[in-house]
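Changelog note: in this version the structure field was regenerated for every chain. One regenerated record is shown below for reference.
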Amino acid sequence: MAKRKPNSIAETGMWSDYEYSVVRKKLSNKSAIITSPRELVALFREFADTEMSEALFVVAVGGRNNLLGIHRIYSGTATGTSVRIGELLRSALMMGSVGFALVHNHPSGECDASDEDIRLTADVAKAATLLDVQFLDHLVVGTNGAFTSIRSEKPSMFEDSTLN
């Protein structure tokens, strides 16, 4: 009997160091529905009031804005953090989200979006459009519940762009 030919590179033994799998496991019976930026900011208020370094989170939601998960993607310094767009979107996609928001704090307590925050938002919006996942907002959280919604400040960034 003839030996079956391998169907994949992994079956040939040429590339078999890793196996990639995704396991989705419900960790809580809590369910939350996020209906506004203010509700989302409330989840981060204590964190923003006490954290000494900048941190960036991806907040994933389902089709009815039900909270699927919050993933801390980056921790930076007191003045910033370096971000890879692919890592942000990977987190949203791995959580099975229909949409996501970015939330990050400014340890200074100020909630004004920086030029870098605006550039990051524009880049994420373009990438999210390509991957067909809804980018809901990018919130910059200061102290005492103060925040800026970049979607509210620059709504044109969140409009679907067409590919030429």
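Spot check on this record: Residues 31-95+110-145 form a domain with the Cytidine Deaminase; domain 2 fold (CATH 3.40.140.10). The longest strand covers residues 67-75.
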